[in-house]
Specification:
The protein has about 325 residues and is an alpha/beta fold. The chain contains 12 helices and 10 strands. It has 3 domains: about 45 residues, 434 Repressor (Amino-terminal Domain) (Orthogonal Bundle); about 80 residues, Rossmann fold, CATH 3.40.50; about 160 residues, Response regulator (Rossmann fold, 3-Layer(aba) Sandwich), CATH 3.40.50. InterPro entries: HTH_LacI (IPR000843), LacI/GalR-like_sensor (IPR046335), Lambda_DNA-bd_dom_sf (IPR010982), Peripla_BP_I (IPR028082).
Length: about 325
């Protein structure tokens, strides 16, 4: 077995001390540019791999952030993780990701144990369930904990949902229903709150409410029930859906049921996933500044005093919404 290249070999190749190599690895500011360049070139030539666990013994930091996610099969969490990785890399950090089933306490404990075993400098929760957030907030983690889409992030979720309602109201819709996500998700709670507040502010009539599991299949499965509600006297003329994937399934299911979108009902989604413009009809949806939210979370975990706030949500109007019939 070939022995792994160590700091000593890098130091010899670069003509510096092992202490200098360690300082370069840990981004010490008092290193001359030419010295740093020689060390980095030696590391590349020798294919030196940084051992985070060993480095943490001498620096009390691994330059790694832990990310715990509930479900990376959905667009929202997957996009959030990608944004966090980009934001962490910009700060000279890496991420170690673990997935937890919020319905299983042992799964959550295992995810936390996994990221802590990496010697992470902080933990970021992505799309957390309310009970997971509560449990981890109360736990003695010994490292900073930040929840994406909670706190300031939740305010943007609420604002985004309000934009969807305002858009439909501006098109003359007075009866608006909602298809939400699972009630125990922090994101769902914020989006539902934003919807409720906006409906009251615009003096609108709230139609029926349904709940799915964020998947396109859930939207399609609920389509017959929603179609019946749309056809009932005084039924809603618009539906705000809590994410784009459920909106996709709902539109497909309504088409099968003989309901035209947007001729009979307007549909608005949330997330502006990359495929939203290619739905038929193209989906009106809400776009969040995930990159900005990721930078905020990484900055908060790292204890940075000044982190630029993420941009406000934006309503992207497309063909799935039209004036009320």
């Amino acid at each position: 077995m070939t022995r792994r290249v160590g700091v000593r070999e890098v130091a010899q190749a670069a003509g510096v001390s092992t202490q200098t190599v360690s300082r370069v690895i840990n981004a010490h500011p008092n290193i001359r540019d030419d010295t740093r360049r020689r060390v980095l070139e030696a590391m590349a030539a020798l294919d030196y791999r940084v051992n985070n666990a060993a480095r943490s013994l001498g620096t009390a930091t691994t330059r790694t952030l832990g990310v715990i996610a509930s479900d990376a099969t959905l667009y929202g969490p997957a996009a959030a993780i990608a944004a966090l990785e980009t934001a962490a890399r910009a700060e000279g950090r890496w991420i170690a990701t673990a997935y937890a089933d919020a319905e299983d306490a042992a799964s959550v404990d295992a995810a936390v144990a996994h990221v802590r075993a990496q010697g992470v400098d902080g933990i970021i929760l992505v799309a957390p369930h309310a009970r997971t957030l509560a449990a981890l907030t109360a736990a003695p983690l010994e490292v900073p904990l930040v929840a994406m889409h909670a706190g300031d992030g939740a305010a943007r979720q609420r604002a985004g949902a309000a934009l969807a309602v305002a858009h439909l109201a501006g098109l003359g819709h007075r009866r608006i229903a909602r298809l939400g996500g699972p009630a125990d998700w922090v994101e769902e709670a914020a989006r539902a709150e934003g919807f409720d507040h906006a409906v009251r502010a615009h003096g609108l009539h709230v139609g029926a409410r349904w709940a799915g599991d964020w998947s396109a299949a859930a939207g399609a499965a609920l389509a017959p029930e929603i179609a019946a509600a749309l056809r009932a006297p005084g039924g809603p003329t618009g539906v705000v859906v809590a994410n784009d994937q459920m909106a996709l399934g709902l539109i497909a299911g309504l088409r099968t049921a003989g309901v035209d979108v947007p001729g009979d009902v307007s549909i608005a989604g949330f997330d502006d996933n990359p495929d939203a413009a290619f739905y038929r009809p193209a989906l009106t949806t809400v776009r969040l500044d995930l990159a900005g939210e990721a930078r905020r979370c990484v900055g908060a975990v790292l204890g940075e005093a000044e982190v630029a706030a993420s941009a406000p949500p934006v309503l992207v109007a497309r063909a799935s919404t039209a004036p009320a019939p």
